[in-house]
Amino acid sequence: MADLGQIVKAYDVRGVYPDQLDDRLVELFGAAFVEVTGATAIVVGHDMRPSSPHLSASFAKGAVRRGADATLIGLCSTDQLYYASGALDLPGAMFTASHNPARYNGIKMCRSGAAPVGQETGLAEIRALVESWLAEGPPEAAAKPGTITQSDTLNDYAAHLLSLVDLSAIRPLKVVVDAGNGMGGHTVPTVLARLPVDLVPMYFELDGTFPNHEANPLDPRNIVDLQARVLSEGADLGLAFDGDADRCFVVDERGRGVSPSAITALVAERELAKHPGGTVIHNLITSWSVPEVVRERGGVPVRTRVGHSFIKQEMARTGAIFGGEHSAHYYFREFWNADTGMLAALHVLAALGGQDGPLSGLVASYDRYAGSGEINSTVDDQAARLAAVRKAFADREGVTLDELDGLTVTTHDWWFNLRASNTEPLLRLNVEARDEPTMSKIRDEALALIRS
């Protein structure tokens, strides 16, 4: 019997194919998804991994057996699936393992209107149903099975994104895009074809074995090729997408990575110009600059946990206009509160193309502090190491602690957050300070405690 505890995560399903996640199991997930959401119709999409087409078909088969109609939209990015869920007002399932290696696959699920399905919003119930069916046998088929139809939503997805950003007056831009052999190679040409952009494509061939580099642009090793190409082409900027193209990372004209926090602040300012006084969500590892910019532009910043299901819940609860994470996920009220790296990229193009200066100058005002980036440490006992760090900093003058998500330690001059991975024996450290020497000192002190 499959160990679902190994593959059902906080807000998706992810595991090695076919050892942990196979067609039979996925068919049960399709049936359980219909049962828990009460759906009479669903939409299903998939990425370019070799196992994705038949896994998505198996999920649809399970849904149809329970009486729901299934619309298959085929190859798509995750935010294209969210578009379909929102535009068609249907629950949806996306087959992808994002930036994980080729042997992995997974399911990201949402309710109608791209509302998240996580542990607290249906995923626990779906898991329980699948476990019961694994033990007792599959559920009875519905008296009237559903139907399967196919649809192509790519052009409608592109048109919707372009309707949300005014790009009518931008100057011509030269843009290098590294799709990492992921779904950006499918979506980017259609979206950018309508703009005055000289597109330089890199690794646009859809290949779920990722022959060139891992499709995770937050790892500096994976944007080296993009940085070099931006410089050799004399491009205005570079964009890098992850495997399912829901995250977008930006490189400036000097070949230097732009902090996702700076992009969050830039987009927040633009959204606040459209929606004065609006609420902006930021997770607790984004830079201090994000809530500062939001307040300076008359908005209301709201701090939340890391993770898309938590962000989306806060977006819905507060009516927020925009949300950003330091992992380069960007969420928009006008996109059903879902995350779309492509829409964030369009905002960057609009901001850059609407003035004459370089991107480095444009983002400088949003990049105010020294940050460590995320540093992962493998540990034997996550709880013990967290406790040791907490004890070491708790009694210091001027220090405040909170445990919204892991441990956050804050002073006037610096802060750090230490969080345990949900899936690996790792602790994740993020440090920020008002200057580089202070950041380095706190980073090294925390790491010494973590790794002792």
Automatic annotation (TrEMBL):
Q: What superkingdom heads the lineage?
A: Bacteria
Q: What is this protein called?
A: Phosphomannomutase/phosphoglucomutase
Cross-referenced Pfam families: PGM_PMM_I, PGM_PMM_II, PGM_PMM_III, PGM_PMM_IV
Q: Where is the Alpha-D-phosphohexomutase C-terminal domain?
A: 374-446
- Keywords linked to the UniProt accession: Isomerase, Magnesium, Metal-binding, Phosphoprotein
Q: Which family does it belong to?
A: Belongs to the phosphohexose mutase family.
Residues in Alpha-D-phosphohexomutase alpha/beta/alpha domain copies: 6-132, 156-255, 261-369
Per the entry, which co-factors are needed?
A: Mg(2+)
- Tell me yes or no: is Glycosyltransferase among this UniProt entry's keywords: no
Establish whether keyword Metal-binding is in the entry.
Answer: yes
